[in-house]
């Protein structure tokens, strides 16, 4: 593995968050009864004519500008001709030689190193329908077709072959997803198919300039699947070459259960899609003033927001990077600061307990029952001495499960911190009397002994004693 490197290029399909499809008035709402979000236009019935949705063009320009692309003043739509059951017209309306945007880039960070990944172009196109397989794609006895997705507006972001490892591939798509989310043009929900990746990958001996023979892995819809599939395919190709074999140019699919890529069809020669300009659609001619207007309306993007978190809030680079990785997480952090102006404390809770529970439950922050106001109120209870930090974690778990306010949980469960010096002092005396060995160790200079005694007091008070007061009283009585 150390003697080879991967050459990876990614095609990322992003579903745009418009209310209607790209060429008709059908809804883009996710779900719905199969084949009910359709009309004669998106079903490709004879005699129908497409009309371009202006919002699709605006969103494509918006995404292109956010990804540092040059926006074309003149672009056109083409027909990409091929037969597949989910394509009712037997062609897909896409863009070929004159796409909406070109020559962009994003910057990623892997292992502490920043790297620029080029974007060759971005083009607009319509989505195909969805094949519903009765089991695994390779073994299904039959498949059903749902055309609800047909005609959904997409942009396809095609990278340069600048990616050299599965880790870089994942970082690139994570960065793309964050930028697109921040612009508001797509929700990028991979579990709903709003963002999907095709991976073109080859390997070559390090130092070699010539590319190796590539394979394409289709329709990866999670970061984990993307990284695992690229890693497996890289290893598979190296083994083939090391054994004296040749890589076959082909399309492969990822088997999540087995953790392997599987051959779908050979692709020895480039497929001739017989592109030609769509005669039913006029070219897209954009006014430079309109492009500038969209550029000026772009929101704060992830890199800008990350820098602000470091400069304005004094957060470490690592914290700022994690908090801005998704717009939802960053927006949650921003809203919480409005209720409690201690950014680092909020960051610690979000990156600690909140991330832990979100990971355990397999959800993201959009499904979190704890609202920013409630997180701020919980931290204030610690500041006020009402509860300890340890008790706060117990309260946080209950808030995460129930969505109740922290004060309500503290009251219901009797978790108010004991800050009465007299009450704590009596427990401290009992603990000192019951642990003469630890007392001797402390007096002999063993500082760790005090930690044990503090723990005994906290245990006796069921974690309710004010830990600072416990520490202070113990040291005073042991002098």
UniProtKB/TrEMBL annotation:
Task: Look up keyword GTP-binding and say if it applies.
Answer: no
- The lineage's top-level taxon is Bacteria
Q: What EC number(s) does this enzyme carry?
A: 6.3.5.-
Q: Name one GO biological process term.
A: glutaminyl-tRNAGln biosynthesis via transamidation
Its EC top class is: ligase
Q: Which SMART domains match?
A: GatB_Yqey
Record keywords, A-Z = ATP-binding, Ligase, Nucleotide-binding, Protein biosynthesis, Transferase
Coiled-coil zones: none
How far does the signal peptide extend, from start to end residue? Answer: none
Q: Which reaction does it catalyse?
A: L-aspartyl-tRNA(Asn) + L-glutamine + ATP + H2O = L-asparaginyl-tRNA(Asn) + L-glutamate + ADP + phosphate + 2 H(+); L-glutamyl-tRNA(Gln) + L-glutamine + ATP + H2O = L-glutaminyl-tRNA(Gln) + L-glutamate + ADP + phosphate + H(+)
For this chain, one GO molecular function annotation is: transferase activity
Where in this chain does the record put each Asn/Gln amidotransferase domain? Answer: 331-478
Question: InterPro entries, per this entry?
Answer: Asn/Gln-tRNA_amidoTrfase_suB/E, Asn/Gln-tRNA_Trfase_suB/E_cat, Asn/Gln_amidotransferase, Asn/Gln_tRNA_amidoTrase-B-like, GatB, GatB_C_1, GatB_Yqey_C_2, Gln-tRNA_amidoTrfase_suB_CS
Family indicated by similarity:
Belongs to the GatB/GatE family. GatB subfamily.
What is this protein's function?
Allows the formation of correctly charged Asn-tRNA(Asn) or Gln-tRNA(Gln) through the transamidation of misacylated Asp-tRNA(Asn) or Glu-tRNA(Gln) in organisms which lack either or both of asparaginyl-tRNA or glutaminyl-tRNA synthetases. The reaction takes place in the presence of glutamine and ATP through an activated phospho-Asp-tRNA(Asn) or phospho-Glu-tRNA(Gln).
Quaternary structure, from the entry: Heterotrimer of A, B and C subunits.
Q: What is this protein called?
A: Aspartyl/glutamyl-tRNA(Asn/Gln) amidotransferase subunit B
Query: Which species expresses this protein natively?
Result: Desulforamulus ferrireducens
